[in-house]
Structure formats: C-alpha cells, structure tokens
Write a structure and sequence with these properties.
The protein is of the alpha+beta class. The chain has one domain: Gcn5-related N-acetyltransferase (GNAT) (Aminopeptidase, 3-Layer(aba) Sandwich). 33% of the residues lie in helices and 35% in strands. The chain has 3 helices and 7 strands; from the N terminus they run βααβββαβββ. It has a 7-stranded mixed sheet. β6 and β7 form a beta hairpin. The protein is globular and about 35 Å long.
Length: 132
C-alpha cells in the first residue's frame, strides 16, 4: 500500500525517514539529507509511506511530463512487491498527468525489465518508462 505523507508531518518523522532513506541519499551526488528535508518543507518533493510486505518510504518529484522517483528505501519485500509498488507509483504519475516515469540508482534491470535502462558516466543507472 502506498500512502501520501503530508509535507508538514515530515519533520515529525524525519529521524525514521532519514534513517530509512540514508543509503539512497548517500548515493545521490545532488542532495544530502538536509537538502531533502528542505525540499520536503518547500513542497518540492512528495513523500509516500509504503506499508505491506515491503515497509519504507518513497520520495517523488513531479516535473511534467516526468514523474521522478527520487528515493525508495525500506526493508522486507520481494521482487514482485517492488514491482507492485512501482505500479502504484506509476498510477500516481498518471494522476499527476505525467507520461514518463524515471529513476536513477543501482542496476535494477532484473527487477524492472519493462524500463529502458542506461548506464550514466558516474556509474549509476537511469531508468525510464513511458506510461499512458
């Protein structure tokens, strides 16, 4: 299950959110934890609580036509659960009137074979999918 988490509640839960997302934030050359919190408070990023087999957090940013999945972190879950959660994020992208979903990170090609993958110069991978 994917639940929107209001920006005004992010500071109250920041210790748990930051601890969960820390591994992903540490791989991001563009942001540190303070920048993520600042963008949350400015309503530049959307936070989602993930509950189910996988529990954790997702952070997205809508820059039409692109719906960026900035971070996902948590524990538990399976490959199928990751795919199901991504489908929920794709549904949110459609609601936001976006036609492209993108994310960057480790090599997730096995988990998300329906995304076009490209290796970036910094060693990370960028994944892109056009949705309707």
């Amino acid at each position: 299950m994917l639940q929107p988490f209001p920006a005004w509640h992010v500071p109250d839960e920041w210790a748990a959110i930051e601890a969960t997302l820390r591994p992903a934030i540490e791989r991001d050359p563009q942001r540190d934890s303070w920048r993520v919190l600042d963008q949350a408070m400015s309503c530049d990023l959307d936070f989602w609580r993930i509950d189910g087999q996988l529990t954790g957090w997702a952070v997205t940013q809508t820059l039409r036509p692109v719906f960026w999945v900035i971070y996902v972190g948590g524990c538990g879950g399976s490959i199928q659960q990751a795919r199901d959660d991504m489908r929920l994020l794709e549904d949110e992208a459609r609601k936001a009137r976006c036609s492209i979903v993108k994310f960057r990170g480790r090599d997730w090609r096995r988990v998300f074979p329906n995304y076009h993958a490209k290796r970036l110069e910094d060693g990370r991978w960028e994944f892109r999918r056009t949705i309707q």
